[in-house]
Protein: Acetate--CoA ligase
Amino acid sequence: MSDKEIFQIPPSFAAQAGVDGARLRQMTDAAARDPEQFWLGEAGRLDWTQRPTVASGSSFADDVSIRWFADGRLNASVNCLDRHLAERGEQIALIWQGQEAAQVERLTYRALHERVCRMANVLRGLGVGKGDRVAIHLPMVVEGVVAMLACARIGALHVVLFGGFSAEGLADRLNDSGAVAVITADEARRGPKRIALKTVMDEALARGVPSVRHMLVLAVTGLDVPMQEGRDLALTPLLAQAAPDCAAAEMEAEDPLFLLYTSGSTGKPKGMVHSTGGYMVWASFTHELVFDHRAGDVFWCTADISWITGHTYVVYGPLANGGTILLFEGLPSYPAPGRWWEVIDTHKVTTFYTAPTAIRSLMRDDDAVVKRHALDSLRLLGSVGEPISPDAWVWFHEAVGRGRCPVVDTWWQTETGGILIAPVPGAVPQKPGSATLPLPGVEAVLLTDKGELIEGEGEGCLCIARSWPGQARTIWGGHERFRHTYFSFSPGYYFSGDGARRDADGYYWITGRIDDVINVSGHRIGTAEVEDVVATDHRFVECAAVGVPHDIKGQGLVVFAVARDASVPDLAEAASLAVTKGIGRYAVPERVYLVPDLPKTRSGKIVRRLLRKIACHELDGLGDLSTLADATIVDRLIAVVGPAK
Ligand code: WT7
Structure:
């Protein structure tokens, strides 16, 4: 398919869309001409206890300081709950669909408000307050959303931790954040399997996490789990006893709302700090604009709440806008293929937001599976997390959207807080594989490796020239790392780490990470993280990790390890185990090669580009080998990997 292939906005969609081309142009012009005025106007979408009088006071120069709506005061949970009570207290805020068809819960805004207040009171009762960090380690159950909003209510920062992290991965993040309390569950259901959340959390705390005073344990499957006297508390009875209302803490716009860990090209995962005011404006603004939100929508974002997509588009964006969210505990194909389609029909989902890795795996089912379902409630489809190939895009559009629903391919990152580049669906015709155009107020640019600005058509590094309200403010405990990671590539620009091409229509085509970050099924993994955990096993001298294309996962991880003594048995398994223990199951390498040495430049830098090509059996274009300290390594590596599949 060529870049020229354009999918016009389906007329039935255009006829009722909230924002058309003319309106979008107006917004884009207004945001560029007078950003201060534009964003102060957009701040009006929230309820403030004190309206802000200034919008941006941000600077990407020098120390880097990002501030929005600095004199405003508000509470995020009030914006997601209390302010809707008068008008839509009896409207469904959250539909929970459990793994089994019969497990369904529907909560009105009033009911959700009450649940959040109870949880907030439990936390306050334990002495948790403004500025404290609370780790949330829960499956996709109602209490996950409730716990996030409860933290927001009392001004504590939530740190949501993925259920797939290993004990070591959890301990690192708990220690870095200094969490005072952990909210976990006995177990999570995952298809026929059970994940022992509490046990993994016990192991994490046993590694030494002195800041954690309390562990609250929610009963999900009802398994009897050992409780540590003085530290662990059964959460379910505490919630039942707690008072059903709780005064919200008044927060400054710049008070952090949460920390969320993500991986970079160097070092350990970093806790990105998101603000209260700017983040909430961005979540609400982008959710309404990109998903053409209107009353009556049932919004299903399939992301786990432990990822930024879950924060912004399962919880904060749609609830700030008074929407109805669907929270699904299960898997796409459990108990049988077509489960997701069944959920869409059952709950009359209008807006369905998922990831290319899921789309690719669903495409593999017989088309009869998706065709069996009506899917006639769907109005709009969305994709996020990695580049979507044109064939997956078209399948999503035709087989799922029945040609009637626009597909919004949304580009953003943990650091950006919300969507930056995406087609506003009633205004921008789509090209499969392109995230299309920056949203109003987003000044995207392409820079060369040397930091020179590329005008017009071209390809380069995707950077942003001006702050936007949803931008992460800093790295928890590491402002200098923040400045260095994102603002030193080219001073004055936010560096995304992604490459992109811009076509003649100004559309952006994200080509993927240009740094040492790989994207496995939408999970960001730093190659340095992988290398560090393998290196802690002294049977290895060193190792290098690279990403290679993978049919379903997008990228898969391949590890090249140099053993101290190659005659020791089972070393490849040992390297693999080091990765799953140090990071989590989701990072399991596709292949581990035990090699005699790694290719390095004369200055000792590992040449990952070469390893990637060899791992992909692309032996024709190995490129310039003259920079290698020892060029004979190439043939020895090929001998291990094999010439072709
Ligand atoms: C990285 C950010 C944004 C929430 C989920 C991932 C890749 C994200 C797209 C897209 C091409 C994309 C980028 C980005 N990415 N969306 N629509 N097209 N690539 O958040 O874990 O912070 O990862 O995901 O490489 O840098 P994240």
Notes: The longest strand covers residues 540-550. The domain at 521-641 is CATH 3.30.300.30 (GMP Synthetase; Chain A, domain 3).
